[in-house]
Amino acid sequence: MDLATVVGMLSGIACLVAAILITPRGNLGMFVDYPSMFIVLGGTTAALLMNFSIRELAGLGRVLRNAFVSRGISPSQLIADFRRYADLARREGILALERVTGEVKDPFLLSGLQHAVDGLDPDVIQDLMRTELDYMSARHERGVKILRQIGSYGPSFGMVGTLIGLTIMLANLKDIDAIGPSMAVAIITTFYGAVLAYLFAVPLAEKMTNRNSEEMVIREMMVKGLAAIQSGDSPRVVEQKLRVLLPPRMREQLGPAR
Amino acid sequence: MDLATVVGMLSGIACLVAAILITPRGNLGMFVDYPSMFIVLGGTTAALLMNFSIRELAGLGRVLRNAFVSRGISPSQLIADFRRYADLARREGILALERVTGEVKDPFLLSGLQHAVDGLDPDVIQDLMRTELDYMSARHERGVKILRQIGSYGPSFGMVGTLIGLTIMLANLKDIDAIGPSMAVAIITTFYGAVLAYLFAVPLAEKMTNRNSEEMVIREMMVKGLAAIQSGDSPRVVEQKLRVLLPPRMREQLGPAR
Amino acid sequence: MDLATVVGMLSGIACLVAAILITPRGNLGMFVDYPSMFIVLGGTTAALLMNFSIRELAGLGRVLRNAFVSRGISPSQLIADFRRYADLARREGILALERVTGEVKDPFLLSGLQHAVDGLDPDVIQDLMRTELDYMSARHERGVKILRQIGSYGPSFGMVGTLIGLTIMLANLKDIDAIGPSMAVAIITTFYGAVLAYLFAVPLAEKMTNRNSEEMVIREMMVKGLAAIQSGDSPRVVEQKLRVLLPPRMREQLGPAR
Amino acid sequence: MDLATVVGMLSGIACLVAAILITPRGNLGMFVDYPSMFIVLGGTTAALLMNFSIRELAGLGRVLRNAFVSRGISPSQLIADFRRYADLARREGILALERVTGEVKDPFLLSGLQHAVDGLDPDVIQDLMRTELDYMSARHERGVKILRQIGSYGPSFGMVGTLIGLTIMLANLKDIDAIGPSMAVAIITTFYGAVLAYLFAVPLAEKMTNRNSEEMVIREMMVKGLAAIQSGDSPRVVEQKLRVLLPPRMREQLGPAR
Amino acid sequence: MDLATVVGMLSGIACLVAAILITPRGNLGMFVDYPSMFIVLGGTTAALLMNFSIRELAGLGRVLRNAFVSRGISPSQLIADFRRYADLARREGILALERVTGEVKDPFLLSGLQHAVDGLDPDVIQDLMRTELDYMSARHERGVKILRQIGSYGPSFGMVGTLIGLTIMLANLKDIDAIGPSMAVAIITTFYGAVLAYLFAVPLAEKMTNRNSEEMVIREMMVKGLAAIQSGDSPRVVEQKLRVLLPPRMREQLGPAR
Q1: What is the pLDDT of residues C179-201, one digit of tens each?
Q2: What are the CA-CA distances from residue B180 to residues A179, B171, C183, E100, E115 (Å)?
Q3: pLDDT tens for residues B185-209?
Q4: Which residues of E63-81 are buried (b: 16+ CB within 10 A; e: fewer)?
Q5: A-contacting residues of D 102-161, CB under 8 Å?
Q6: Chain E adjacent subunits, 3+ CB pairs under 8 A
Q7: Shortest Cα distance from A102 to chain D (angstroms)?
């Protein structure tokens, strides 16, 4: 569970609620308006349907789960594993890596190891893995794009709703009692759009992008590590080649390269 | 028929209509204004004529059809085909591919296969195919550009119309009864521009861009597959080289590489 | 004459005029204001003078002529010509190309052919031609930049004028009769800036950019064609190498590669 | 201590305070509003929690310290050092560099030197160092991203607060005495967001980006210098290769290359 | 003296002054407000101090001088010089270039020539010169960045001032006589920010960027020219290689390549 995401979202909503309540004459009821919800949520959903294929939208659930669930392979464990593989490959040959494929869970690394055991040319394996990474990264970015578009369509339909509210109000301008409340309604639509964008879509999209870059570092370590093993590097050099991808802080925790 | 696009557009309009009707004192008649339509649709059309050549604009129909009609080559079928071609080429030589050219419908793949049968150098074929892909992709992006510019000119002329409405209203400020309705008219123009952008041009442009990237993945598979066959790869390796371009989900559906 | 550009500009202006006239109480006289013109046209001109060198600004006329006059080399003619050159070069040697230099009007292609006849190394010619293309493309983009900056400075000075108008109005707020008209004046300046941008500068800049990319496709065909001839390709292969740059529609019109 | 950052921030606040005080009827008390602080600071913090991982946010302190503390390796000292290393390596061989590793404080340069002493292949060392630089630069940019997002979320929640304030005010429109003060409150939220962005987050983010590019120049000098030493360049050529990265002004201060 | 810059700035200010004076009831005194100046100039200066190092800000004077003073090496003179060098190098060998180093004023070209005379490898010289160009170009862009940030902070602090003015006005809303003038003051701050941006910072930044690209063309000619001489090209080929970087117009003025 990525606590930061959950705590962030809840505390953001709490802040807005508290601010409304401590403002003199403010109450939450003023901020509930059904036509405004209709316009912002309905319009955004409609635009998403036009923007993406059903299959892509169906993947949004998975994208969101990734934003709330923290997961991922530990770089220090990966380095330790690669030292072991390098040691094994040096002593008993590349084919001995077959014995470790049982313990590898990550399908990307697993298929790379299997190609190596199958005797594929190192260049071909590198090419396969990097092609897979490129397309994986592009797919991830397109999943995040759904959130980014929510962050863009939300405020846009907020504005559309404000224009609707203003038009109705101005057409009834003689009814002076109605001005204030209908203006409030017009403004609530923009408020909904802004909250949808800034307390949901935009920060989640950014978190997913950050997650994806972190994952790409891990995958790059796998590609570089396998290439180093295939070119016969010593465990020490393999470790060196992987460590340079990590921040100094994390390297210190790993201790000096053995 | 790409249902998502149609359902999205219709439900978006339905949402706005419903929101107008359930707002107290709102009715649809308030949102019909001929000068505003003139400004937004006329101005946008005029700017498009200046922006694009007649030939490019005439292609907009084809671009839109692509947004509403879902089509495309299935990646799993393509992989199965390439396994077959690879098998054939291995057993009977590249020239045997001539027999399958009759069944290939896609002109891009067909011309690649024919070049291979004609004995063109693999490097030359790769170069021809990639050059064609580059220019194809640039042309697609220019077709989508028309939609993007509608999404940009629409709100711009919406604003121009609002300025016209405001100027007329302010010049007649003494006539207090006229303020409300003419302000409403001024705002309707911006409303038209926003609807044209967010329930038509922008999401359709994004859908076309997504479609184009999916098509490019398919075409890249064709280029990579043909190169693999020409370099004499086994059907298994050919399949591997194509599978890495696909999302894990789709690969699972294909079953393990045979 | 590029009719689309002319028709677009005239019809855009006609739309705005018509919309003003059919709006109740609207008349064209309300939209004529000399201080506003001063601010938008004067300010934009001043900023352009600061932004560009006199020599670049003097080239704007040429840039604009290109936007209104449609011209350009036909790709199908170019392909036919290159088939002929390839045929000639194959049968009588590269030097025989000297005979066709008289008929070539385009200076870029002409200098490439002359280098080939002069016996320059194919790599050197490719390098010369591509360097020229890179710098040509950068120069074109800088010519278009003037139009883009008009599209940016116009609305900016429109806003400056609005601020001037608002300040004057607010300093005279007690004179209630003056509010409406001076507000109108303030808004007209923004209107002028928007029209300058959206019915002149922005679409023309986009058209020029489109033209430039089309021209670059033609020039790329020249570079690729000459390289193919120098490497001794058959007329059929030369044609193939040029055709892949064209859209399928245009290729169909050309008929199958002979 | 980077005085410019401190002086800039303090003088910016002083300017705003002075401007408030010298404006007729202005006093600082008008600009203190607790709900507004709640919305801007609380909302921004909430969005940051959703946007970044706890570990990244915890690094913000370090990022900020870098913005206020000026530090860094002097290029002229680095060039003098590299001349010395080059001289040593030429006269006594690469292994003699082991003697200077004790005086090198920078861990990046130190590890490069140790790799050279360990006899790693120059290409491998270059590859290790450049990979480390790429990932270092990406990490730095992600640290700066926190500041950039504060500069983006601050004004966004300022706008959210304004919408809240406007809604409350409009719902109480009949109470005319309340309009002015509650509008002021609505506007103060935007004011807080703007100050957070323009007198804190945006300029600090830019300073960090500048610092990072300067650091990258220094690190590039280390990579280029080590490569030059390993390829056996004379001290004079090593110095030449490092000097070209510096501005002419700094080179003049160094005197002519010896 | 770059007259265009000076004339542009003066005529821009004249336009605004004239527009203010010819607007009924407008006078220049309305546009002088000390708190507004404080906020815009003080705030922008403060943000610049936080954004850049003192050393970078101190270089702004030099950057500005370049915007007002037109200078630069003539391409036609450079081509003539390179023909001469090529001729000399062909007849008497590369070392004979030593004789012309006395007449070369540009330090970049001079150091390249000296390296050639010193017998450095052509690849090393190319590498040195291109590295220097890359870092030179990055430094120029960072100098221009100061102007760009003035163009961004100016309007930002204009908005901050407007928010301050609005808050003070709204807190004193009962004093109806004060509304107009204090609103005017609020708007003047935005006006100052816009003028600072659009009649000073933005066009000057663009002019500097244009100048830098022109200078980069000249420097690229130097790199290409020296490489051509070192590879033993004839004066005619050297000239050809430099001419392709120039616009056709300028090439015509040079006459045909001899």
Answers
A1: 776 787 789 999 999 999 999 99
A2: 11, 14, 17, 80, 77
A3: 789 999 999 999 999 999 999 999 9
A4: bbebbbeeeebebeebbeb
A5: 107, 115, 120, 124, 128-129, 131-132, 135, 138-139, 142, 149, 153, 156-157, 159-161
A6: C, D
A7: 31
